[in-house]
Structure formats: structure tokens, C-alpha cells
Here is the input.
Amino acid sequence: MEFTNFKNDNPAVKKSNFAYHLKCPICESQNIKDKYKLKDYIISECLDCSAVFVKEILTDNFLTNFYQKSEGDFVYEDNNQQFLSYYYHKIKSEIEKIKPAKGAILDIGCSAGFFLNIMEGWERYGMEIAEKFGQMAREKIGDNIYIGSFENYPIKENYFDVITLQDVFDHFIDPVENLKKCYQMLKPGGLLVIKAHNISCLYAKIKGVNFYAIIPPVHLFYFNEQSLKYLFNRVGLRFLKSKFIGHILQLKTIFYRLSGEGTNKFYFKLSKLFEHNILGKIRFYKNLHDIITVFAIKEEKKEEVSTF
Here is the structure.
């Protein structure tokens, strides 16, 4: 889902008292340390599986309320779709190399349905929590778009040939349970694709707490290949491969990302300056390995052969 113009002073950000993760929610290790503090949130790191996460245990009600109150601050950029489509077509190609026969595909966090729109020949399903974007997706794809949280999505056991989670996995309160649900819904031999920010890239290490993806409570988890591999192994998926697929960005978008959603006033002013300026539309190819796309397979169970 592509958002811009998030207001850091939104009252929905202010949180009540919550419990804290006392062990890693990914691998359950107690070997964790506090790494950053941002907007009154503590960002912790697991020293065993390398997952980074918001230490506060937020609730579904809190986040639903947050997104509802913030919906007017998230502005969907329809004119940016030609640039997002660059990535979508790359992912489509990767998926169809592995699954040339096509089949049923579920895009979790499908936004306005632009990725599903290019998946011609597939039996297409989507899930989107935001009412406005879900309705936009339904206009493109039809009634197979579910509007609501993934936690409430009705299970279709052993149904999907492919499940994709693009820019959504780091939003989950409980990625382990949601990955187990994906496992249930994949057919044996089914493919899972996750696109997430790579917390271990050089750019993230240089920027530290100012890495553009660290925006609690929008992003609750920050992964890398190691922690994603651990997750796959935990739920029974076989890691297949990872890829660093680049993106096309406009100059105005680059300045906005550097502004940290407005916290850096210099870059934010530059983004506003170029917002309606022809120079702001200059395109750049960006691949800092800050986005990782991972592929995993649900193993087909082998039938036991009787020796009698």
C-alpha cells in the first residue's frame, strides 16, 4: 500500500499503557535489547534471529482506531502507479517462472488492486483493511476482494497456489500466527511471496533510527533474510530464494522518503517544493537493497509407501 503525507502529530499515535514483549515474538529468545526510541515507542532487537520489532504489544482495536483516524492523512497516489507497476511486473514474472500453470492467487494488503489487475489469467483474490482502497480494488477485480483485517479473513484451506504479502508483513501484530494462516491456505506446493523492508541493508545501518521504514505504529516489525528464514522454518515453509528488486521513484518521492514522513523539515520542504514542479517528476532507479522479496514453498507431503 502506498501512502504519503502522514502527520506525526496525529492524535491516534498517542497510546495507552501496553504490555511489552519480554522475549522475541519471532523466535521466542529472551536475548533481546532495546535499540531505538521513536515517538514514544521502544524498538527492540533480537540478538539471536536478528528480528527488530516494536516492544509494545499493541492491540487490534488500537491499530484499527489508529488507521481509521489516520485515513485522511494517508493520501493514495494514483499517478505513482506507473512507477509501482515496474515492481509489480517484476514480481509477476518471478511468480510465473515458478507457477507457469497459474491458478488461484491471494494478495494480502492488496490496496487498490493494481497488482491483481496485472495478474491476468489467474483466479484473483485480495484482502484490504482500508475501506476506500478495498472498494477501489473491487471495482477492478470484483467481489473476491475482502475488506477487513487478515486476522478475520475466512480460511480457505489448501486453496491458493500463490499468496503474496507486499508491504504488509511488517504491519502485523503477530506475523507468526498470520504466517501459519497462510500455510493453512496454501496448497501443497504453493508459493508464498513476501516483500518487506530489509533492516540489515547498509542504508538502514547508516541511517539508524532515521531509516525511512522505522515508523511505529505503522510498521511493527523489521525483517531481514535471516529472520524471515527463521519464520519460514518455524511454520513449515521451505525457503526458496530472495531477491533485491529495485524501484522507480520520482525526485519528489525521494525527498519525501528522506524527510521521514515530515520529521526532517529540510527534506520535507524540498518534497513540497518539487511536488508540483516538473523537476519533481524526474525518475530515478533505486535499489539500495532496502527492500527484500523472499519466496517460500509449502512442501508437498510424501505418501508413505507400505512395505507389506
About this structure: The chain has one domain: 11-296.
